[in-house]
Amino acid sequence: MTKQVVGIDVGKAKLDVGLSGHKRVRVWNNDEAGREELSEWVVAQAVELVVVEASGGYEAAIVSELVERGQAVALVNPTRVRAFARAEGILAKTDKIDAGVIARFGATMKPAPQARRDLSQVELNQWVTRRRQLVLMVTAEKNRLQTAAPSMQTHIAKHIAWLQTEIEALEQQINQAIVANPDWSETAQRVESVPGIGAVTSSTLVADLPELGQLNRQKIAALVGIAPFNHDSGKRRGQRRIFGGRASVRSVLYMATLSAIRHNPVIKSFYDRLLAKGKIKKVALTACMRKLLVILNAMVKNGQDWSPTIS
Predict the structure, then answer these.
(1) Which of 23, 122, 152, 311 has the greatest number of CB atoms lying within 10 Å of its CB?
(2) What is the pTM for the complete model shown?
(3) Residues 74-122: pLDDT tens digits?
(4) Do residues 212 and 183 lie in contact, with contact meaning Cβ atoms separated by under 8 Å?
(5) Partners of 29 in beta bridges
């Protein structure tokens, strides 16, 4: 007998829940009591998979609750679900309709469950995300400082100083959390043994990419969004492009690759070979990002520190 799939449409206040093969949609409050009751119901159904549509962070608590109970959970991009709905001929969009569509999408497409994330992992992710937000604020304020009237420059400068103090406090908190967790600490130290990678990149990988070392090279590249996809039709051969993935990981990997092109002999040699073959710099840089990620994945998977022989 084929096990069923639960689909959850997440809102700020409500959780609409559909079960594959059933028309009825159940609704729970998106609060502590509602999430606990929903999780108990899901476990009682003995379903194969729970599919949750990403919803700007409102889904984090229910995903953590379900994973803590040992439930397989897949977090999916809403774009994929809407494309599936259009393929079914469903143009209307309501929370109840979406919950049913998500359940059928999960039963048909069977998206891969995400790596286990306990509450400490979610908390670390939030700290790393907050640090990234504050860095963007500092950049914006520095840009404003250049064109601000003299009467406003002192105010902006004070805000920049406060933001930088908060960033330093967050970095200390993130570092302490990673050091206190043996698995995180081992991964961070291993990643930082690679020339071109520092604490910001390692902490982001630990927080936002717990699948590192658990997937093969193709899947980890696709998960991050640096695996090129073909755009061919008939005799036409379109340009291959990257799509989707985890923007936070891709962003730090981009900066790490820029550093690696200068300081990492393996990545530098690979980059130079691509340019010599006529690849444009943007394409060569993306290829280097993928190679660097594959190397990191292999290191974590095999329990190895950096070596120029790893590829």
Answers:
(1) 122
(2) 0.74
(3) 988 888 899 898 988 887 778 778 899 999 999 998 888 876 666 788 8
(4) no
(5) 14
